Task: structure prediction
Amino acid sequence: MESKNLILNFFKKLDKWFKDIILDDVDKPHDGPLPYHKGFGIKKDPVTRIENRFNEQKKQNRG
Result:
């Protein structure tokens, strides 16, 4: 029974160690957009974005 607890304890420590390595960046505070959102830029007002897209589509449809 003691060896089972030792093995279980070892795997729990190993799991915690891997999680600490893999999730290290997740725990850091970010003052701007998250690193995987950097390509999206600053969001404008949704209504303005929709109107701009509609106007661009009109221009393209005219040929």
